[in-house]
Design brief:
Elements (H helix, E strand, L loop, with lengths): L10 H5 L4 E3 L2 H10 L5 E3 L13 H4 L10 H6 L3 E5 L4 H9 L4 E4 L5 H15 L2 H22 L5 E6 L3 E3 L4 H8 L3 E2 L9 E3 L2 H7 L3 E4 L9 H4 L4 H6 L5 E3 L11 H16 L2
Parallel strand pairs: 1-2, 1-3, 3-4, 5-7, 5-9, 9-10
Antiparallel strand pairs: 5-6, 6-8
Helix pairs in contact: 2-6, 6-7, 7-12
Pfam family, one: Peripla_BP_2
Protein name: Iron complex transport system substrate-binding protein
InterPro entries: ABC_Transporter_SBP, ABC_transptr_periplasmic_BD
Length: 270
Amino acid sequence: MAISVGLRLTPALAAELPRIASMNVCTDQLLLTLADPGQILGLSRFSRDPWQSWAASDARRYRILSGGAEDILVLKPDVVVASLFDKRSTREFLKEKGFHLVEFGVPRSLDEVKDQIRRMGAVVGHPDRATAEIARLDDAITRARQAATGKHYSVLPLSRRGWVSGSDSLVSSLLSEAGLFNAAGDLGVTSGGYASLEAIVSARPDFIVVSEAGDHAEDEGSAFLLHPALERFYPPSKRIVIPEQLTVCGGVMLADALDVLVKELKRVSR
């Protein structure tokens, strides 16, 4: 049943909407965006982590679940939403107990992201909200394409210890939608993998895409990005910064990620 966003729910109407528990940080964020607050019984134990969740502050209003089956058994939700990467034994146990489990995969393209937004919109009973969020994402894609028109930049998404998001990844889809070329293919990286410092420097992409700026490394993993060789070839003017919480999951936050990309392209193109 579709409910208009601006419609005040009567008790009878609200009672028809499913009560939902989320087991995964990515389903958390879809749920927080598309469901009514009263529908949300609990969120994953990572829902308040600002490094993983774009909606971490909103998540503080809700119960945190353990990740196991026990608290879901107590809450008795109408629907449980989860990722296919959540613990399989827990998911199977909940199914055996008769719970309605809706499982989401990991999207690798923006088209798959849109499908998941539609699916969650149907699950929560608010398909109109899903349609609005997809329209917002499409508008952000258009802005990103306009910003990159005629530039033909090659970029390399790079993170801790030299991990590269490959050509068959959500981040790559995000970049290609904006008209940018993911240089991971030049390194032989498809879904994702580690690349040596020497290989990265030899590939010489126009820019690297990182999750944070700054000159401080908290550990050895992040220190890779501050290696003198990388800093020499990729100073701040050659680094496109997109916060990690905007790209960890496939969801409505990707519209914000694309708008950040537009701002970064304007900055580095000066």
